[in-house]
Amino acid sequence: MAAMTHYASGTVYAASAYVAWGLLPLYWRLLEAVPATEILAHRIFWSFIFTASILALTGGWRTLPAAFAEKRKLAVLLASGVLISFNWYTYIWAVNSGFVIQASMGYYIAPLVSVLLGVTVLKEHLTRWQAMAAILAALGVTILTVQYGQIPWVALILAFSFSLYGLAKKFASVGSVTGLAVETSVVTPVAAFYIAFLAIRGSSAPAEGLPHLVLLAGAGVVTALPLLFFAHGAKRIKLSTIGFLQYIAPTLTLMLGIFVFQEHFSTVHLISFGFIWTGLALYTASNFRSLQRYSHRKQGQAG
Questions:
Q1: 25-39: b or e for each residue (b if 16 or more CB lie within 10 Å)?
Q2: What is the pLDDT of residues 171-215, one digit of tens each?
Q3: Pair 60, 175: CB distance under 8 Å
Q4: How does residue 170 score in pLDDT terms, banded at 50, 70 and 90?
Q5: Which residue ranges make up each domain of the chain?
Q6: Within 13 Å of residue 8, how many CA atoms lie on the same side as its CB?
Q7: Are 92 and 35 in contact (CB under 8 A)?
Q8: How many CB atoms lie within 10 A of CB 63?
Q9: Cα 295 to Cα 277: distance, rounded to the nearest angstrom
Q10: CA torsion sign, 10 to 13 to 16 to 20?
Q11: Distances (CA, A) of 20 to 26, 55, 63, 132, 194
Q12: Across all residues in the chain, what is the average pLDDT?
């Protein structure tokens, strides 16, 4: 019973993280009048303040020296800080520029881009099902490109920047909160300088009133809190469960794009997404089967 409760709480934590990420466009739309670069600067700055405060309160600050001690790990975290900042900027700009559907597409195809990076960079073996999944996703993107005469850059930038970020994190094994604190710390000086520059010039959003300042400061909370939920959940549930739950976020974002923000969703979009969804189904099923085989092998060795 205790194990079931532990697993159930982990599922709730992880699902809550993905729901929060999926609904994030609603928050950015509250700051629609603020330039994406300024929102990004505040998101970086307040994320660092929030995560640093958590580490200070929980004693997690003791993990920071190890992250800064190794030059290789610090370089990787610097790269991941730049990558996630670029990803955040693209996402904020996309939401407030009417590309929410493309943003959701980006996070649908991100797992498949990660597979390709695993093959090309880490020399991982690509299974037949994973290859088919990647081909189907590529077909989906191609259909959209041919029909509208332009490449869905927003989706591809989000997918590749997030997948490269995940690849960088693989080389720097630090906790999620500690990692975010270090990643934001390396770009916080730039963000703080930009915020100060805008304030001195008198063109910053907080100058327009307290509500804007509260929302901008809250960007740190809405960034870090889902990470905390995810960290708690990931410790309690299987990787296969996370594999299924991860599609909550782009699905919610897609629903927001269609039904809340009233973006155009044509038959071509549906066909394109259909290829991507089919690819994801194959990818998820392949991962699930691999995990089952691994679990059976471990049980056999234990027996």
A1: bebbeebeebebebb
A2: 776 777 888 888 899 899 999 999 999 888 877 766 566 788 899
A3: yes
A4: confident
A5: 2-302
A6: 5
A7: no
A8: 16
A9: 27
A10: negative
A11: 10, 22, 27, 31, 28
A12: 87
Closest CA relative to residue 38, chosen from 82, 99, 96: 96
Q: Name residue 243's amino acid.
A: G
Tokens at 59, concatenated: 């004693």
The pLDDT score that the predictor gives to residue 228 is 86
Sign of the Cα torsion 25, 27, 32, 38 reads negative
pLDDT > 90: percent of the chain:
50
Q: Is residue 42 classed exposed, middle or buried when 0-12, 13-18 and 19+ CB atoms within 10 A define those classes?
A: buried
> pLDDT digit string (tens) for 250-280?
999 999 999 999 999 999 999 999 999 999 9
pTM recorded for the entire structure: 0.90
Between CA 280 and CA 283 the distance in angstroms is: 5
In angstroms, the CA 198 to CA 42 distance is: 12
* DSSP secondary structure of the chain: -HHHHHHHHHHHHHHHHHHHHHHHHHHHHTTTTS-HHHHHHHHHHHHHHHHHHHHHHHTGGGGHHHHHH-HHHHHHHHHHHHHHHHHHHHHHHHHHTT-HHHHHHHHHHHHHHHHHHHHHTS-PPPPHHHHHHHHHHHHHHHHHHHHHTS--HHHHHHHHHHHHHHHHHHHS---HHHHHHHHHHHHHHHHHHHHHHHHHHT--GGGG-HHHHHHHHHHHHHHHHHHHHHHHHHTTS-HHHHHHHTTHHHHHHHHIIIIIS-----HHHHHHHHHHHHHHHHHHHHHHHHHHHHHHHHHHHH-
Do residues 192 and 185 make contact, with C-beta atoms less than 8 angstroms apart? no
pLDDT in tens, 211-225: 888 999 999 999 999
